[in-house]
Every structure is written in structure tokens, then in C-alpha cells.
Design goal:
Elements (H helix, E strand, L loop, with lengths): L7 H18 L2 E2 H8 L3 H13 L3 E3 L15 E4 L1 H6 L4 H14 L2 H12 L3 H14 L6 H14 L4 E10 L11 E10 L5 H6 L2 H14 L4 E4 L8 E11 L2
Antiparallel strand pairs: 1-3, 2-3, 4-5, 5-7, 6-7
Helix pairs in contact: 1-3, 2-3, 5-6, 6-10, 7-8, 7-10
Length: 245
Amino acid sequence: MTAPESEPGVAQTTRDRLVEAISTHGPITARQLAERFGLTSAAVRRHLAALEAEDVIAEHEVPVAHRGRGRPSKSFVLSHSAHEGLPGGYDELAVMAVDELARLGGDEAITALAERRIADWESRLAQHVAEREEGGESVTVARRLELLAEMLTERGYATTVRPLHVPLPAAGAHSGSNPRTLVTAQLCHGHCPVLDVAADHPELCEAETRVISRIIGAPVQRLATLAQGAHACTTHIPLTEGRTP
């Protein structure tokens, strides 16, 4: 017999699932969470109120320029203290930092450390791509991005891919020209395993951006980072330019 949701253990499990979903998919509303987990909106709001009171989550402030008519639905992201409480790779990073700083010293050492920390991203992603191509799958740039997100999630980044379609002006002066659509995506990390270090040493973020660009095979742009106080690390990824139906 399934225990009622009000029992402490079940409630804690539900809250853990909510926290994980908010970390990965935030900003996210109570309604979206209820639909995702098959819960009532009232039950989700009760859990969210408790998590907000415990400073585990925080309400996401919508920029004024992006607000539509009426009052927007409340959406939530992890609080700063929750990010600090999540497990990170600080022990390993500290050892690497000491080794590099002792060998090189100064800014060059930090840059070398940042590159060394993510040195296997490309090779691991290439392995994942090769395995799927051997199975007969045609790995597109968009699929490569999905595989990268899966790999980074396994490493504690809580990563998602959020597709974006940007309409472009029709080519030429003829009004009958078919409109074009620029297909892009945002790679979002809901958690950073080295948040505290990256806050003082943005070289870590810059190294990640460079390796993501090499993996995708196109210039990318880091729009925001958790280290700078954003609710997620967001990287703009150009994919393809196509035509709308």
C-alpha cells in the first residue's frame, strides 16, 4: 500500500524531486511542476512554500521588458544557498590547483588549471558520438548538443537544452520571399560544481565556453553564469538556418 504524501518520508522524497526539477528546468512554475509529477497544484504549492521558507528555492524575478499583460505566474529557481549546499568537486580541484599553481604560478596557472579540469570533455563526447554512429544513427549538431547536455548532467551540471527559433527578414526586396528562421538553442546549467571557485576565477567559465565551442564546431556565447549571480549558466548555441513551412 502506498504511503500518503503527508508522511514525512514521502514528503521529503517529493521535495527532493521538486528541487531536482527546479535545478534542471528552472525557472519553472508550480503548475508545470504539478503536471510533470502528476501532483495537485495545491500539494506542489505547499511543498514550494516550505522549500522557499527554508531558503532552498527562490522566486524568479521576471525582467520588466519581458512581462506581458497581467500578473505573470510565479516561477522558481534554486536559491544561492542551495547551490552552495549541493556537492561539488572542490577536493579534486584544490589538488589540481596546487599542482598547477606550484608549477607555473600566476594567471597562467589558473588558465592551465581551467583547461586541465575539462580536458576530457571533447574526447568523451566524441566517444558518445562514435558509439551512436556505429549503431547507424546520424548525429546532427543538435543531437551532439543533447549528448553534451547528458554528459554534463552526469557530471553535476543539471544541464538542459532549450531550442529557440528566431525569425529573420526575408532575403531580397520581393515581399513574396519565404521567411527564414534561425534555429538556435540555449545550453543551461542549473548547477555549477565549482561555483565558489568560478566566482573569483572566471577563467573556469571561459575555458568551458571554449571547449563547448570546439565540440559544437561553431562560435558560442556565454550569456549568463551562476558565478555572476544568474539563476543558471546560459550559453547561446547557433545551430542551423532553415526556412519555415
